[in-house]
Amino acid sequence: MLNLINRFMRIAESELILNERGAVYHLNLLPSEIASIIITVGDPDRVPLVSRFFDQIDMRQSHREFVTHTGTLGGKRISVVSTGIGTDNIDIVMQELDALVNIDLAERRVKQQLHQLNIIRIGTCGSLQKEAPEDSFIVSTHGLGIDNLLNFYVISNNDEEKNLLQQFILHTQLSNRFAQPYIAAGAAALLKHFVDGFHHGITITCPGFYGPQGRMLRLGLAYPELRERLTSFNSGSHRILNFEMETSGIYGLGKLLGHNCISLSAVVANRVAGSFSKDAGKTVNNLIEKTLNIITSTNL
Description:
- By secondary structure, the chain is an alpha/beta fold.
- 28% of the residues lie in helices and 28% in strands.
- The chain is globular, with a radius of gyration of 19 Å.
- The relative contact order is 0.18.
């Protein structure tokens, strides 16, 4: 209903902000400056680590923590966009990427013909299982958010998602103490390409790095057993493999907006073993190369 209404409504200047060159405000991008295949990374300095593999870079743009390079690799046009950290930034990035392809910025109306993006996150994470050690790779079958972002939108789940969410809430009791958890699955159209060399499992998205992920420095934790509850959760073949700070927002908004999304993580810390990668940069670089090889060798 929301999309149907928007197609007949002009979107006000206060709701979709454009800068002086007519680009979406936060990303500072025009529709012609992004590709249909988009790689997202958290760290702006990771953008050139991806684009250095391109055959050519046609466009470089930046604003605040949002850096974008668009180019070609193996005949495919690809954009790499930095999101910064957290689902609050993911809300901005996903909405503005969608606006670039599905809203006529001059008319400020939703287009009749909608365009689907393939969005691939390359990030880092902490593993919650011994069988996913540091320097291994995880692909998220589902993003399960305890950050609250998707609760501001009208969301719906299929039966599998509803069952997983119900069992998770029962197991952790998070909804009684914190935000209402939500869940969204990764796109099957992308998941099928990322099998060999990847662990598959549920990813928890947290609203912070320290307390929300069970780290204790000088402050006591309101839920000290959280990490153990996440590690011990299982539902049939589904287990929680890792946690980080963006995946559920990407999956949830991607599903609502009609885009294919997948989240790939390099494990830099194993929270069960208490270990950290001895060369996290190399591990991330290996994941970047593996991802680009898959993109160029498949029908994405």
